């Protein structure tokens, strides 16, 4: 599929970019997308939640009152879960939330996500660009020229670019990353995907393997 290549001002350069059918025109597999997004979100969890149980509480081991004659229930330790400051029963423990996913499934998921965005006509190709200095104003002007200033946008570069990244950092609804950092979740989560020409080459070379 051919799409027009735009410049940084949103004007047609007269050149066309060919979106490979092997990446942008496959039969989408929504279950693969689900599995990849599920894995990505699970990997965002630190899993360091922890509550102290009674064996981990620092406190006296003295029996706090005599066994009989008080008219109340028996109690042998101030660290008991029934007392304030005592241990917690079945409290949360550190857990590893990472999930394993076959690399072929991950590749299929990314291609499926890109195919769906292509069908929605939510993919724009621009020529490689740079800013002289990090300025949010320049990046907002770039988004406005593409007509996506009010959308959640994903800008994919071929290589890391500090000026472009810093220019976008203050914008909540826009994110910049490189083609090697592209994930299924980032694609699905974006309303509009903007690819530079070098990023397009990198994505196709990575996903055609």
From TrEMBL:
Superkingdom of source: Bacteria
PANTHER family: 50S RIBOSOMAL PROTEIN L4, LARGE RIBOSOMAL SUBUNIT PROTEIN UL4M
Gene this protein is translated from: rplD
Region (Disordered): 51-77
Organism field: Flagellimonas algicola
Job description of the protein: One of the primary rRNA binding proteins, this protein initially binds near the 5'-end of the 23S rRNA. It is important during the early stages of 50S assembly. It makes multiple contacts with different domains of the 23S rRNA in the assembled 50S subunit and ribosome.
Keyword line: Ribonucleoprotein, Ribosomal protein, RNA-binding, rRNA-binding
NCBIfam families: rplD_bact
Protein name: Large ribosomal subunit protein uL4
GO cellular component: ribosome
HAMAP family attached to this UniProt entry: Ribosomal_uL4_B
InterPro entries (UniProt xref): Ribosomal_uL4, Ribosomal_uL4-like, Ribosomal_uL4_dom_sf
Family listed: Belongs to the universal ribosomal protein uL4 family.
Subunit structure: Part of the 50S ribosomal subunit.
